[in-house]
Amino acid sequence: MFYPITRLRRLRNCETIRAMVRENHLSIDDLIYPLFAIYGRNVKNPVASMPGVFQLSVDNVVKECGEVVHLGLKSVLLFGIPETKDEAASGAYDPDGIVQQAIRAIKKEFPGLYVITDVCLCEYTSHGHCGMISGDTVLNDPTLNYLADTALSHAVAGADMVAPSDMMDGRVGAIRTKLDQHGFSHIPIMAYSAKFASAFYGPFRDVAESAPQFGDRKAYQMDPANGDEAVRETALDIEEGADIVMVKPGLPYLDLVRRIKDEFHYPTAVYNVSGEYSMVKAAALNGWIDEKRIVMEALLGMKRAGADLIITYHAKDAARWMGEKA
Prior knowledge:
With 326 residues, the chain is of the alpha/beta class. It has a single domain, classed as Aldolase class I (TIM Barrel, Alpha-Beta Barrel). It has helices spanning 15-20, 58-71, 90-93, 98-109, 141-157, 171-181, 202-208, 228-240, 254-264, 274-285, 291-305, 315-325, and strands at 31-38, 44-46, 54-56, 75-81, 114-119, 133-134, 137-138, 161-164, 190-195, 244-248, 268-272, 309-312. The strands form two sheets. Strands 1, 2, 3, 4, 5, 8, 9, 10, 11 and 12 form a ten-stranded mixed sheet that branches. Strands 6-7 form a two-stranded antiparallel sheet. One of its GO terms (biological process) is protoporphyrinogen IX biosynthetic process. Belongs to the ALAD family. Pfam families: ALAD. This is Delta-aminolevulinic acid dehydratase.
């Protein structure tokens, strides 16, 4: 290829030709919107560190789902904030827990909305860790049955998919076995396969009220320096029965989205996490950036890296913007 025979600018001359040769496309169908359910009625608690994100009582979760459906979004990811916490995380697998109530209410009003549930214990434990503890140690194997019971309770309530985010070894297999044994072999598992011990989760811990009361999560979430380990973690989740694998966070780890997609050719999700969202919102509120262009560029970058699905707090805004363009 030699200039002037090859001129790549020929295919950039106008929007029509740019659209014709565009390699990657972002769709509303790609986006999953997180929601946070809390006890009470007519509750809509704003989260200072996440402008536009709220803790919602079940009635307001349903109202929010109405807006989600109106915008054309197809799926939500549901988190819960219990009234009380204990060492056994009993609110996580309570048949009448906050997530279970929210699932039933959503499916009653919007049966076609695809409800994915986060399966973890950190929001429900008094110590804020993702599993059972002994002293200052988070125990792996004793935690697995609690996670499996939580996933089963979500399926019984009507969840369409469960998404374990705890990073305990073997949890995908334990959940798959429990679901299959109870007649829920049709329920897919979206595994948080490569979830890193990241500084980008800070605002999420505000909204989910899930900060650990001692230590940190580095003994079970992954070291941000490790890429090969992320591939091994993903391989194990696939072997245990994961239907979709995930990389979390998003933007700093897009190299791993690409590696995992190329290695396994599996449906791959990426979580555009709270810290990524809050930085964009803060800069936009200060007038430093063009929020729409920044958000759409970031989401398209995730698609280009290989993501099939994107969990993002920007989902409603992105859906509006895509709707305006249409």
